[in-house]
Amino acid sequence: EAQLVVALAGNPNSGKTTVFNNLTGSRQHVGNWPGVTVEKKEGQFVFEGKVIRVIDLPGTYSLGAYSEDEAVARDYILFERPDVVINVVDATNLERNLYLTTHLLEMGANVVVALNMFDELKTREVDIDVPRLSKLLGMPVVPTVATRNKGMKELVAQALQAAKDGVKEPLKINYGKEMETELAAMEQEISSNPGLPDNLSPRWLTVKLLEGDEGVLKWLNKYPGLERLLARRDEIVNQLEGIIGEDIESFVADRRYGFIGGLAREVVTRRKTAEERLS
Ligand code: GDP
Ligand code: K
Ligand code: MG
After folding, report:
1. Distance (Å) from CA 16 to ligand 3 centroid
2. Given the CA of residue 145, which atom of ligand 1 is nearest to it?
3. Among 16, 18, 115, which is best to mutate for testing ligand 1, by the most ligand atoms less than 8 A from CB?
4. In this predicted complex, what is the ipTM?
5. Which positions does UniProt annotate for Mg(2+) binding (predicted)?
6. For residue 48, is pLDDT > 80?
7. CB 226 within 8 Å of CB 192
8. What confidence tens digit (pLDDT) does each residue in 189-229 have?
9. How far is the CA of 100 from the centre of ligand 1 (A)?
């Protein structure tokens, strides 16, 4: 039986390493990712008789490949295809942390969220409706307090279940009528290319292509059959930017934050302070 691989992804200081240490104990070693100076931490543990390999990815806020850290995390998820990505999210900074989550989901990764720092919510008088968050994101969300080893068993159980279930439909953020029309046409052209690896989400590739993501442009240039589409890309982008009135990259980021803002409004409630309760 093949070993299961679980990768930990999250913003810096979300508690990734604490989760990693909880899971792997002393069975870990540190090396470097090939070609870069970024530290690579690997470990393993046994759960219900199965050996699970755990990779602690570099902490990142996004997966746009603007930094070595982002490139390492993104390439690992895209090309090494871990069975599950545990996305460690700092619950006290939900909206900022979910930005990375939307990237993971759009890429088509098999994601389970560890909603970490859950203990801090109480002090801050904030509540998060976890079942609702899980439902809206379409994936398991497990509250955790990594520093007290809380929620780890449930997290592992959910990760293994997700590995068994496989990836669900990748998250679709609605980018509005004009861009969606263009996306649909380009996605069709991209997904009909027989040479492309079938584990890449064509929609994600298309969004990246429109955003002008250098890494994705470089990959796509390797595949014969996409020359016509790539040659038309700049023209399509110019036209679209004329209609939406801003550059596509900012537009896409705005829509992502819009989606996250909507989520947060539905799941986060701030309890009234003592003073507010008086009035
Ligand atoms: P990383 O940068 O994502 O690897 O985060 P670390 O695991 O290094 O944790 C960052 C800081 O947050 C450390 O000081 C941890 O002790 C602390 N921390 C991690 N998890 C929790 C948690 O669930 N609750 C609280 N209150 N602190 C945590
Ligand atoms: K740290
Ligand atoms: Mg760390």
Report:
1. 5
2. 23
3. 18
4. 0.96
5. 21, 24-25
6. yes
7. no
8. 888 888 887 778 889 999 999 999 888 888 888 888 888 88
9. 18
Helices (H), the chain: 16-24, 68-75, 94-107, 118-123, 130-137, 152-165, 177-191, 202-211, 214-221, 227-244, 248-267, 274-278
**Exposure pattern of 83-101 as b/e (b: 16+ CB <10 Å)?**
bbbbbbbbbbebeebbbbb
Residue 33 tokens, joined: 């990712």
Distance of CA 75 to the CA centre of its chain: 13
User: How far apart (Å, rounded) are the C-alpha atoms in residues 133 and 279?
Assistant: 31
Nearest-10 crossing angle of helices 227-244, 248-267? 70
For the chain, the average pLDDT equals 91
Instruction: Return the structure tokens found at 224.
Output: 């014969």
**3-state DSSP call for residue 54?**
strand
49 marked as binding residue: no
- What single DSSP character describes residue 146? G
DSSP-derived 3-state class of residue 154: helix
Consult the annotation and say whether 118 binds a ligand. Answer: yes
Tokens describing residue 43: 């470990």
Is 147 annotated for ligand binding? yes
Sign of CA pseudo-dihedral 237, 101, 173, 163: positive
Q: How far is the CA of 229 from the centre of ligand 3 (A)?
A: 40
